[in-house]
Amino acid sequence: MTGDDFSEVERLIRQHQGEAFETRSGLPMTYKVDGSRIKVSRAKPWLLMEGARQIWAMGPDATLTDVDQRITGRAYLFAILRDSRIQPSASR
To answer: Where are the domains of the chain?
Structure first.
């Protein structure tokens, strides 16, 4: 995956902010983007777009347990990235 791949994903993340998403366990959440930061309604700290980029670079076969635990909010970022609205080919 290239940086160009992620630029489309980042555009989709920004486009769908404020919409209802679900965690892996089905809990509702929303998020907003401010620059390179993402604020998820269910998480206290701001998450970083760079964390989302790192998860995206792992590819579609990666699982949550594959994601580095040092990425703040990795489960929330993973849930956003795996949503069909954020998949570039599904959004056209």
So the answer is: 3-91
